[in-house]
Amino acid sequence: MEMFRKLDGAQTVDTLREMAANVDAIVTMLPESDHVLSAYETLLKSSKPEQIFVDCSTISPESSKKVSDMATRKGCKFLGAPVSGGVVGAENGTLTFMVGGDEAALKEASGLLSSMGSRWVYCGPAGSGLIAKICNNMILGMTMVAVAEAMNVAVKSGMEPNILASVINTSSGRCWASEINNPVPGAVEKSPSNDDYQKGFKAALLLKDMRLGESLAKEVGATTLLTRETVELYEEISKKGWADRDFSIAYKYFKEL
Fold first, then answer.
1. Has 107 been annotated as catalytic?
2. Considering the entire predicted model, what is its pTM?
3. Which residue ranges does the record assign to the 3-hydroxyisobutyrate dehydrogenase-like NAD-binding domain (predicted)?
4. % helix / strand / coil in the chain, to the nearest 5?
5. Measured between alpha carbons, how far apart are the two ends of the chain, in Å?
């Protein structure tokens, strides 16, 4: 809270109810489905009709639908709008929002979203944005593991990591996990790997999202072979005490095997 008090123009309040009673729009971003459901149970007790709520958490689609129904019953508008772009995107205001909910509400909230991101995609009714985000993060987790594995092979073969990164990032292997968040220290600038994986997207959160992907796949009868392998790898990473490190620490895991 102290960090927000120091921001120019920012005001802080002590309770969720106080916040809900004094603003026209609220944006939330919390780690788990239970956190979101609990927060909205409190927020909606002091909500006002036509108030707009935007939840940017990555949670289960069903949980987002529940919150949407809760808000609708109170006469409020709710959008499930998880984001992509990482810490760098948040700092630069270039996040992408994957939005599910009422399209008219999205038009009303577009100004608010533009203060945090550069792009949003309307994915469909409530829960749709979460489906898109979960599937995106399934790919994110799998590609990070692939990049970490391949980079480890190259480094152990004597190649400088920045050289391989420059090849990958101009070739068919190019991806966010290599170009922006490369798991090898020194391979690219500003990657969390350069700071001992201390900043960025926590491995615990990536594991949570991969498990959400497995749950969603099970619900719809889809096969997820690579997702299962990725879940198991990040479970091992968590056992090593690295759950709070950036998920690119997968490289360190391979390096130490």
1. no
2. 0.91
3. 127-253
4. 55, 10, 30
5. 40
3-class SS string, 204-237: HHHHHHHHHHHHHHHHHCCCCHHHHHHHHHHHHH
CA gap 123, 117 in Å, rounded: 16
Domain that holds residue 70: 2-125
Same domain, 156 and 55: no
Q: Are residues 108 and 141 in the same domain?
A: no
* pLDDT tens by residue, 175-206: 999 999 999 999 999 899 999 999 899 999 99
Query: Mind listing the pLDDT tens digit for each residue in 240-251?
Result: 999 999 999 999
Total domains present in the chain = 2
- The two three-digit tokens of residue 39, written as one number: 């927060």
Last residue of a domain, one of 125, 151, 168: 125
Q: What is the CA radius of gyration of the chain?
A: 20
Reading the block at residue 55, the tokens are 């939840």
**Domain CATH number, residue 89:** 3.40.50.720
Residue 145 is part of a domain; what is its CATH number? 1.10.1040.10
Residues 6+ apart with CB under 8 A from 205: 31, 58, 247
**CA-angle at 78, arms to 89 and 207, nearest 5°:** 50
Evaluate whether 96 touches 83 at the Cβ level (below 8 Å).
yes
Q: Among 82, 53, 83, 81, which residue's Cα sits nearest to residue 69?
A: 53
Q: Which of 65, 66, 77, 133 is catalytic?
A: 133
103, 125, 147 — which closes off a domain? 125
Answer yes or no: do 147 and 223 share one domain.
Answer: yes
